[in-house]
């Protein structure tokens, strides 16, 4: 029976430490990290995530700025808002909630955010920094996955990792982070031949495809560590519920450790967003990132 990796608990501890460091930063340097979150449209899941981001930022005593724009907002209006936030010294981190409606070019919007305020780590400058081993901002979900992995496994050197999914938000940065930890990394996707066999070879399996329960237990190598990034809303027996990309009930019998959905990777995403905002504030003021928070994240 697999160990359940409790991301919710880990994220709560990390957020509490971030909150302590925010107070210290304010007392010692008169700096309050500021997070601006922009939501375009009324997607119900996005509304929940944005509300949770703003609430958790306030709980950590950060300054939280929320902008809600109508579904049909012209792209230029969104770009104007980003320009204003780029220039606002009270805002250290800017996040545009994805997905965006079709009239908005997501790439243009992401590229308009000042790289040092891009706390999502999606700007090409930060993507390039990650690829070349720099110290730019790392996207929140892969960062959270890596913290859970390192906490559970310690040294990852030499392990075979399979990343299922090749999105810019999760799959690609996750593969880069695993490579940085000396894993042997494979990225699998919808055109991969022999997906089940690829999965069975993996000591670490990251599932990030957005397909409910796509990975059954018999695709998992006995003892493997499974990180389930999927957050799929399904209806079962007349009830709405959240499930991952992995079939948890069968996987739990084979895996060595597994993240649940909900309560695994999801809460880490927001904790890492707050961490990235705190780091951005420190850097913008020429201050070191507090050691305590790094210890809480990685220790
Ligand atoms: N600009 C961004 N947009 C999106 C990102 C992102 O990192 N940056 N990621 C996802 C959504 N996301 C954050 O925005 C996110 C998803 C899930 C959770 C979470 O806490 N999930 C809970 C369940 C919550 C629920 O009941 O729905 C869990 O898994 O336990 C947090 C953040 C896409 N967009």
Automatic annotation (TrEMBL):
<comment type="similarity">
    <text>Belongs to the tetrahydrofolate dehydrogenase/cyclohydrolase family.</text>
</comment>
<dbReference type="GO" id="GO:0009086">
    <property type="term" value="P:methionine biosynthetic process"/>
</dbReference>
<keyword id="KW-0028">Amino-acid biosynthesis</keyword>
<dbReference type="GO" id="GO:0006164">
    <property type="term" value="P:purine nucleotide biosynthetic process"/>
</dbReference>
<dbReference type="InterPro" id="IPR020867">
    <property type="entry name" value="THF_DH/CycHdrlase_CS"/>
</dbReference>
<keyword id="KW-0486">Methionine biosynthesis</keyword>
<dbReference type="InterPro" id="IPR020630">
    <property type="entry name" value="THF_DH/CycHdrlase_cat_dom"/>
</dbReference>
<dbReference type="Pfam" id="PF00763">
    <property type="entry name" value="THF_DHG_CYH"/>
</dbReference>
<keyword id="KW-0368">Histidine biosynthesis</keyword>
<feature type="binding site">
    <location>
        <position position="231"/>
    </location>
    <ligand>
        <name>NADP(+)</name>
    </ligand>
</feature>
<dbReference type="InterPro" id="IPR000672">
    <property type="entry name" value="THF_DH/CycHdrlase"/>
</dbReference>
<comment type="function">
    <text>Catalyzes the oxidation of 5,10-methylenetetrahydrofolate to 5,10-methenyltetrahydrofolate and then the hydrolysis of 5,10-methenyltetrahydrofolate to 10-formyltetrahydrofolate.</text>
</comment>
<dbReference type="GO" id="GO:0000105">
    <property type="term" value="P:L-histidine biosynthetic process"/>
</dbReference>
<keyword id="KW-0511">Multifunctional enzyme</keyword>
<dbReference type="InterPro" id="IPR020631">
    <property type="entry name" value="THF_DH/CycHdrlase_NAD-bd_dom"/>
</dbReference>
<dbReference type="GO" id="GO:0035999">
    <property type="term" value="P:tetrahydrofolate interconversion"/>
</dbReference>
<dbReference type="GO" id="GO:0004477">
    <property type="term" value="F:methenyltetrahydrofolate cyclohydrolase activity"/>
</dbReference>
<dbReference type="GO" id="GO:0005829">
    <property type="term" value="C:cytosol"/>
</dbReference>
<dbReference type="InterPro" id="IPR036291">
    <property type="entry name" value="NAD(P)-bd_dom_sf"/>
</dbReference>
<keyword id="KW-0560">Oxidoreductase</keyword>
<keyword id="KW-0554">One-carbon metabolism</keyword>
<keyword id="KW-0658">Purine biosynthesis</keyword>
<dbReference type="GO" id="GO:0004488">
    <property type="term" value="F:methylenetetrahydrofolate dehydrogenase (NADP+) activity"/>
</dbReference>
<dbReference type="Pfam" id="PF02882">
    <property type="entry name" value="THF_DHG_CYH_C"/>
</dbReference>
<comment type="pathway">
    <text>One-carbon metabolism; tetrahydrofolate interconversion.</text>
</comment>
<feature type="domain" description="Tetrahydrofolate dehydrogenase/cyclohydrolase catalytic">
    <location>
        <begin position="5"/>
        <end position="120"/>
    </location>
</feature>
<protein>
    <recommendedName>
        <fullName>Bifunctional protein FolD</fullName>
        <ecNumber>1.5.1.5</ecNumber>
        <ecNumber>3.5.4.9</ecNumber>
    </recommendedName>
</protein>
<dbReference type="InterPro" id="IPR046346">
    <property type="entry name" value="Aminoacid_DH-like_N_sf"/>
</dbReference>
<keyword id="KW-0378">Hydrolase</keyword>
<feature type="domain" description="Tetrahydrofolate dehydrogenase/cyclohydrolase NAD(P)-binding">
    <location>
        <begin position="139"/>
        <end position="284"/>
    </location>
</feature>
<feature type="binding site">
    <location>
        <begin position="165"/>
        <end position="167"/>
    </location>
    <ligand>
        <name>NADP(+)</name>
    </ligand>
</feature>
<comment type="subunit">
    <text>Homodimer.</text>
</comment>
<keyword id="KW-0521">NADP</keyword>
């Amino acid at each position: 029976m697999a160990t359940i990796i409790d991301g919710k608990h880990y994220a709560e501890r990390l957020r509490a430490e971030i909150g302590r460091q925010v107070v210290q930063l304010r007392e010692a340097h008169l700096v309050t990290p500021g997070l601006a979150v922009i939501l375009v449209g009324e997607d119900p899941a996005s509304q929940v995530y944005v509300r949770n981001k703003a609430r958790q930022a306030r709980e950590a005593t950060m300054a939280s700025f929320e902008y809600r724009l109508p579904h049909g907002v012209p792209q230029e209006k969104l770009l104007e808002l980003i320009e204003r936030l780029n220039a606002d010294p009270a805002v250290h981190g800017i996040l545009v909630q994805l997905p965006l409606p079709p009239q908005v070019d997501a790439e243009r919007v992401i590229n308009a955010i000042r790289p040092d305020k891009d706390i999502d780590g999606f700007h090409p400058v930060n993507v390039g920094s990650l690829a070349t081993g720099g110290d730019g901002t790392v996207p929140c979900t892969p960062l959270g996955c890596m913290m859970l992995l390192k906490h559970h496994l310690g040294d990852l050197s030499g392990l075979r990792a399979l990343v299922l999914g090749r999105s810019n938000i999760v799959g690609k940065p996750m593969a880069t982070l695993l490579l940085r930890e000396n894993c042997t990394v494979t990225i699998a996707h919808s055109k991969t031949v022999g997906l089940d066999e690829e999965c069975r070879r993996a000591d670490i399996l990251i599932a990030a495809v957005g397909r409910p329960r796509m990975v059954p237990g018999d695709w998992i190598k006995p003892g493997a560590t499974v990180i389930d990034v999927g957050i799929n809303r399904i209806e079962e027996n007349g009830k709405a519920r959240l499930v991952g990309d992995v079939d948890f009930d069968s996987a739990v019998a084979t895996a060595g450790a597994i993240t649940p959905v909900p309560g695994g990777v999801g809460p880490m995403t927001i904790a890492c967003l707050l961490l990235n905002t705190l780091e951005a504030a420190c850097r913008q003021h020429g201050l070191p990132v507090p050691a305590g928070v790094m210890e809480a994240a990685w220790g």
